[in-house]
From TrEMBL:
Domain of life: Bacteria
Extent of Gly residues compositional bias: 11-29
Name of this protein: Mycothiol-dependent maleylpyruvate isomerase metal-binding domain-containing protein
Gene Ontology molecular function terms on file: metal ion binding
Domain Mycothiol-dependent maleylpyruvate isomerase metal-binding per the UniProt entry, residue ranges: 148-293
InterPro entries: Anti_sigma_zinc_sf (IPR041916), DinB/YfiT-like (IPR034660), MDMPI_metal-binding (IPR024344)
Keywords: Transcription, Transcription regulation
Length: 426
């Protein structure tokens, strides 16, 4: 390459065909060192990009129109543009702002946060209120009131459950002298159990026995006999005879009056007067209704306080006999006295304090069923919750875990707690 050619290439003044172009290109076969101009977006044939979102412009509405929209705005029924116009206006107009605040508060009262579904316990509360306030044409003896109320509550529960839930598994539980015992059945099986044992009261009143002429005497034997003689496992059809029998029992004791309460009801190995037998059946109805409610996930509360108190009183009155039976069977420690305290005389006593709306205090004689509880000879004190005591008497709570408060003779306390659990049965 000559010197002239080199010079021309450096300063860009050459004009020959071999000169380097003045546009900054790198020569033939080389990319340009200076980028070419970019093509316009509009000339590329592609869709144009969306413009950026701009804040909405409030509607320009007169004051009267904006004021008329306050109700719709409080109910969130305005369009976006209308809501924006109202909110801008509320920042400038104090009178409309106060009115909007009052409307919003009113809307809050109309829209409660609770569910619109009916409370599952509503039926129970209505039944309790009706039973409490509606005067009966034929008065029901007070001692039959708990049975009437508890069978009505259980019937309401059964009304609410579906066909499949009648076969939900339920475990009947009780305390068999020394250890817990249980028997597996279904919801329908529990109702069959109540029907067969309530038949003891029906027989005593001269009504038809659900087991027929060859009905067994003990609650467990009657239940087993009924289960074997009927369709097993029982179905929801058992509700009809149980419901009819409970109604007949209530009607019969109402017509016979309070004097019938002294009539004896045999449980096989022991006997209760009718007024106590009806309380016993009310207690078992409540306990097994809780078993059913737990199996089908149904809310269920304890009985009314005055009914609960009567049930606890029955259990407290039965404790001395249960304690004597355990001593005779060698399951409880013998008393320190060499002979039984004569009937009607005071002896060693345990103070049973039951807390809660159905509670109270009872002095339990420890030395013989015929003795009288006396504060002068009190040797121990036990405190329990009312519902917890009932669950102990139903065999649903271990005796060792029942007492919330204990004071005094530990042996006497243990014997009474185990005697309370022994009141339970299948």
């Amino acid at each position: 390459m000559t010197g002239a050619e080199f010079s021309g290439a450096q300063d860009g003044t050459g004009s020959g065909d071999g000169d380097v172009p003045r546009d900054g290109g790198g020569g033939l076969g080389r990319p340009p060192r200076i980028p070419l101009p970019r093509a316009s977006v509009e000339d590329g044939g592609q869709p144009l990009p969306e413009p950026p979102d701009l804040p909405p412009v409030p509607l320009q509405l007169p004051h009267d129109v904006l004021k008329s929209l306050l109700g719709a705005w409080a109910l969130a029924a305005c369009s976006t543009a209308e809501a924006l116009a109202v909110e801008v206006h509320l920042g400038d107009c104090g009178a409309c702002a106060d009115e909007a605040r009052r409307l919003r508060e009113a809307v809050g009262l109309l829209h409660q946060p609770e569910s619109l579904d009916l409370d599952p316990g509503l039926r129970t509360r209505v039944l309790e209120a009706c039973l409490d306030r509606r005067p009966a044409r034929i008065p029901l003896p007070a001692w039959a009131g708990p049975y009437d109320a508890e069978t009505a509550r259980l019937d309401a529960l059964l009304q609410d459950i579906g066909d499949a839930e009648w076969h939900a598994p339920v475990r009947l539980r009780w305390f068999d002298g020394e250890v817990p015992a249980s028997r597996r059945t279904t919801v329908a099986g529990v109702i069959a159990h109540l029907l067969s044992v309530d038949g003891l009261v029906a027989t005593a009143l001269g009504l038809e026995d659900p087991l027929g002429a060859a009905g067994a005497q003990g609650p467990a034997a009657r239940t087993e006999a009924f289960w074997q003689a009927s369709h097993f496992p029982p179905t929801r059809a058992v509700r009809v005879p149980w419901r009819e029998q409970s109604h007949r029992l209530v009607q019969t004791v109402s017509f016979t009056g309070g004097g019938a309460g002294r009539l004896g009801v045999s449980y096989g190995d022991f006997e209760l007067p009718l007024h106590d037998a009806m309380l016993d059946r009310a207690f078992e109805c409540w306990v097994h209704a809780e078993d059913i409610a737990e199996a089908v996930d149904y809310p269920y509360g304890p009985p009314a306080p005055r009914h609960l108190h009567r049930m606890i009183d029955l259990a407290a009155r039965m404790l001395p006999t249960a304690l004597a039976a355990r001593r005779q069977a060698g399951l409880a420690a013998p008393g320190p006295t060499p002979h039984l305290v004569p009937a009607g005389q005071p002896g060693r006593s345990l103070r049973l304090e039951i807390e809660g709306s159905g509670g109270g205090e009872w002095l339990i004689p420890l030395d013989s069923p015929g003795a009288v509880g006396s504060a002068e000879f009190e040797v121990a004190h036990v405190a329990l919750d009312d519902v917890e005591f009932c669950r102990l008497a139903a065999g649903h709570v271990p005796p060792e875990e029942a007492a919330a408060g204990q004071l005094g003779d530990r042996s006497a306390i243990r014997d009474v707690l185990f005697a309370a659990a022994s009141l339970s049965r299948m």
